[in-house]
Amino acid sequence: MAFTAASLSPYTTTFPPKRHHFPFPSIRFTSRRLLISASLLSSETHLQSDHQLEPDEPHQAPDYNSLDTWTERDMRSLPSPELEVIQLEELPEQWRRSRIAWLCKELPAYKQSTAVRILNGQRKWISQDDATYVAVHCMRIREYESAFRVYSWMSQQHWYRFNFALATKLADHLGRDRKIAKCRQVFDDITKQGRVASESTFHILIIAYLSAHVDGGIDEACTIYNQMVQQGGYRPRLTLHNSLFKALVSKTGGTSKHYLKQAEFIYHNLVTMDLEVSKDIYAGLIWLHSYQDKIDRDRIVFLRDEMKRAGFKETSDVLVSVMRAFSKEGDLEETEKAWLRLLKMGSEIPSQAFVCRMELYSRIGEPMKSLKIFKQMKEVLRQPNISAYHKIINIMSKAQEVELAQALMDEFMETSMKHLMPAFLDMMYMYLNLEMHEKLASIFTKCLSRCRPNRVLYSIYLESLVRTNNIQKAEELFTEMQKNATIGTTAKSCNMMLRGFLSAGEYIKAEKLHNMMRHKKYEIQPDLLEKIQNGLFLNNNFVDHKNVVDQTVNIKLDQEQREILIGLFLGGLEVAQNERNRNHAIRFRFQQDSDIHSVLRIHIFERFYEWLAASDRSIKDETEIPYQFSTVSHLHFNFFATQFQMNSQPAVPKLIHRWLSPCVLAYWYMYAGFRHSSGDILLRLKGGKIEDVERIVKALKEKSILCKVKRKGRVSWIGMQGSSADTFLKLVEPYLLDFCEKDDDSQIKEVSFGYPDADSEVDLLG
């Protein structure tokens, strides 16, 4: 990056461009100790002012996607500790000066392992002041990773004493340079020492999380923000409040609604700190409240009043949020009042306003009025959107208006819109409630031709078959659910099939299913349990029912579960140790913004259901399955902990080349893989030595899969191109979950499996 004289602040110290080899350092300081302030060590990325705007400067929403939105002037206003560094030329020993200067020259040119070996060779003479000088020099020439290596190495030495100022400067630089994981590690070091990080460190780390768009970044930013206010007692800048708030409301309503408490906390801080509350803050809070399951009317009224007192007019977005909130409560007066105000604005009416009115009249028992509003929407907007079709079909289905619902569904299917599944499910529930089983079977077939197979879809059809005593076909469907990993079976579907077997007198099949349910720790419905006990008593082939019902099942990992875990561990799965019994538990973590991870989490949840804690097994709806959950601590997981973890860091087993079955590769690919639009495939490998990666590459080569490897820190990316990528896909295809929704011409959309993280190099295959 080139700097001109006009682009640099007169208070900013310029440094030479970043490079890997440096001339012999000649550093001359004017005093015994050099005081380095935050403003002298920060030169490349600026933080923007946020307290007040200039009188002639227009107000703009803060851009939290870039760290360049902050000015150097405001960074200098943030309190930061002063760092004392020795003066090199005044050291009494010439050899020490030469050694330190040599380290300053050589360390930035090497990678982690070599740099550590060089530092280990200096243990006999190097001191904390010497290592601090080297770390500061690396920061001064913008070699922040080298500075972090020196800091990490010195922190492990017996003579090390925690240096708050050094940790602060290093964390600030790492955060500005988007090295979020390393910045967070230094930040945690400060916290572990019982110290409160400086305001600048809090500030930079929050902005780094918001700008990186990593999975869970917003949650981490909220955690750091809360610590900054509550533990640090700091008063964050106005733009920091606004940036975090904007990030909270940047997602869809269904996902953002969980951040209501955090958004209210930001608003509370703005008010108590006497900072300006913008119109977007009021609008965002009302929007979040409108998506809550339980509407807080008083809070919405209060926010609207505060908005008026601040001199802000209610925009169409605010009125739509008000309509959404009051329509959920069936408040006809308030919803229609907001609708009339929306009409008076004279602008284009948002489609969501029509949907809210349809919801309103459905709530108060006037579904035909909702249909009339839908027809008006078609006249005004010409083509209703997907949410409008979903809502009106849902309303007609609940009202059991069969002919109208069928006509609307046919109309929806004739459009080029996708996401038909919610409408199909509403229709199937209607047919099930009306005992129209032939219609249900017909629409089930239509749904399979247009949409991805769905567990709820199969469960509805299974219940229909059991109700009509079509046990043979129900058993075939249930077997298909078990074989298809994307669909799977749940406690509900197993109870349904068990009811069918018992009603048909198929006691042997009922016994097998009952044993499977006990193994999976599924809860058996009380009336079915009573029938099982009676059946066991009447059938001589069964043992005493008390022993069958009450005995404890000794569960073990099956072969597929072991292969699944190996694949997930290669992608970065974690284990945790129970301090009481020293056994380990598996921590499953999935990305919320990944389609395959959304499906994979449901599949893994059901596949390892018997290993989960009782609190996790109590989840009844798959939409409630969290993106992070853990198994119980068990000795069966100790093997994986010893093989895939070393010194609390990810590792690769020495025998991994023998375990790379197609199933292992498939789950590794789905959990931590990436498919480029060109067809190239990348697999992320966390941990492991170079020889471990070589064993994996050699094992893949034996399967006619040629690979290239790129290493970044402790993460390796294994890349496959051309025919090798095709061979890999053909190998793992039988084990891949079918999660792609079909479009209208029955073609599968191209999708990506995960994505490389922000700190890794993506262009690996060049």
From TrEMBL:
- Name the domain of life: Eukaryota
Q: PPR repeat ranges?
A: 490-524
Keyword terms of this UniProt record: mRNA processing, mRNA splicing, Repeat, Transit peptide
Q: Name one GO molecular function term.
A: endonuclease activity
Listed Basic and acidic residues bias regions: 47-60
Residues annotated as region Disordered?
A: 47-66
A Pfam match is: LAGLIDADG_2
Q: Does the keyword Ligase apply?
A: no
Q: Does the keyword Repeat apply?
A: yes
Tell me which NCBIfam families the record gives: PPR (TIGR00756)
What name has this protein been given in UniProt? Homing endonuclease LAGLIDADG domain-containing protein
